[in-house]
Design a protein that fits this description.
- This protein has helices at about 10-20, 25-40, 55-60, 75-95, 105-110, 115-125, 150-160, 210-215.
- It is mainly α.
- It is elongated and about 115 Å long.
- It comes from Acanthaster planci.
- One of its GO terms (cellular component) is actin cytoskeleton.
- Belongs to the calponin family.
Length: about 250
């Protein structure tokens, strides 16, 4: 690849991450595919370096699309880069998506070879969509679009599906559980019941009636005889205060 300086820091970490995505078998299959598509004898299937001048790539894409791209046979670096750019333009004409393409330096300087490999695999997938295609295969066949159309009647019917027949019930809860609650035995409340006994008898309600005099008497109970004294405070303390001597 092109001569570039060593990477340091974050650039080095990024380079190692990209290199870790390379797959030797995928690259080998890609080179075999290009060789079979172009019929070129100048391809070293174990070395991507032979593709960086862009000549073989232009030959590859020109064998696929009708609107040919320009290929410069010169060996100057700027002409090689121009060939790679022409190949990328040809991929766009073929219908590849933006995320399936690569940058010139990804191949020319070896900055992101996995992205370049992905581009060639995208070409292989798209070629297989043609039912008349009988050339070399690279990668799986691209899935065909399968749109689904629903009538208004079907859409309206979906609105009547009970919410608990699909999706989530908003997570697990303990609502409605009675585990640990007292067991109420109603039979024992019947004064005439004389059958077997299980558990304690349920307590009967015992209402208390208060006269107005009793209610009024409760208002005169000192507050410190019940409840809280609003927490401990230092109000009223004179410890540490200056001692006043009055003659």
């Amino acid at each position: 690849m092109a001569n570039v300086g060593p990477a340091y820091g974050d650039m080095l970490a990024r380079k190692k991450k990209i290199e870790g995505k390379r797959d030797a078998q995928q690259e080998h299959d890609m080179m075999i595919f290009i060789q079979e598509r172009t019929g070129s004898n100048d391809i070293d299937v174990d070395n991507i370096e032979c593709l960086k001048d862009g000549k073989i790539l232009c030959e590859l894409i020109n064998g696929i699309i009708d609107n040919k791209v320009k290929c410069d046979q010169g060996n100057a670096p700027f002409k090689m880069r121009a060939n790679v750019e022409s190949f990328i333009e040809g991929c766009k004409r073929f219908g590849l998506k933006e995320q399936e393409l690569f940058q010139v330096n990804d191949l020319f300087e070896g900055k992101n070879l996995p992205q370049f490999t992905q581009c060639i695999y995208a070409i292989g997938r798209k070629l297989q969509m043609d039912p008349c295609y009988c050339g070399p295969i690279l990668g799986p066949k691209q899935a065909a679009e399968n749109k689904r159309h629903f009538s208004q009647e079907q859409l309206d019917a979906g609105k009547h599906i009970h919410s608990l027949q699909m999706g989530s019930n908003k997570g697990a809860t303990q609502a409605g559980q009675n585990f640990g609650a007292p067991r109420q035995i109603i039979l024992q409340m019947d004064p005439c019941y004389c059958g077997p006994i299980l558990g304690p008898k349920q307590a009967c309600g015992e209402k208390r009636e208060w006269t107005q005099e009793q209610l009024d008497a409760g208002k005169h109970i000192h507050s410190l005889q019940m409840g809280s004294n609003k927490g401990a405070t230092q109000a009223g303390q004179n410890f540490g205060a200056p001692r006043q001597i009055i003659n």
